[in-house]
Amino acid sequence: MMVEIDYDNFIDCTEQETFDVPFEGFKSLDEELDDIEYYVYNNPYPDYEEMIEKLEKHWQMQGEYGEDNHEWCQTMYYNIWDDDCIYEMGKNIYEKGGLYAMIQNYHTLVQLSPFADSQNTIIRNYCKRISIIWEEIGGWKF
């Protein structure tokens, strides 16, 4: 199931770098997922031009990040808790560019998406679950 994004309800974050959720100790899984959802909806995924700027110093990742890949990575970002969606986006990346494209797009999400900007370890590392969900797509190994 894909999440329909209501852009009208985003908090305007243009005045600050990252609208973060501080780490407040151990929480239940539901509370952590609420924090992640709050973070995702209040820290929009960069548009294609912004991501290309971020990728300028990462030529390996940039070489595997086209407009289709941007759309698929953005979809994963906004649906990070949806295993089926993440799996399908991984298949799309693999079918277009192979295993190397999957590797580079994974690193783009982990290192350059808004997840990487969070000071909350749980939020920052949550997108690493992609590696588990992509298991067996095109030989991907966790």
Break the fold down into its secondary structure elements and pairings:
Blueprint: H1 29-42, H2 48-55, H3 59-62, H4 67-78, H5 83-112, H6 121-126, H7 130-133
Q: Note poorly predicted spans.
A: 10-16
Distance between the ends:
24 Å
User: Biggest sheet: strands, sense, closure?
Assistant: none
The number of E-state strands comes to: 0
User: Helix fraction?
Assistant: 40-55%
Assess the beta-strand content as a share of residues: under 5%
Order of helices and strands: HHHHHHH
The figure for the number of domains is 1
Radius of gyration: 15 Å
Output the structural class.
Answer: mainly alpha
Number of helices: 7
* Average pLDDT: 85
Overall spatial form: globular
What does this structure look like?
- The chain is globular, with a radius of gyration of 15 Å.
- It has one domain.
- With about 140 residues, the protein is an all-alpha fold.
- The two termini are about 25 Å apart.
- It has 7 helices and no strands.
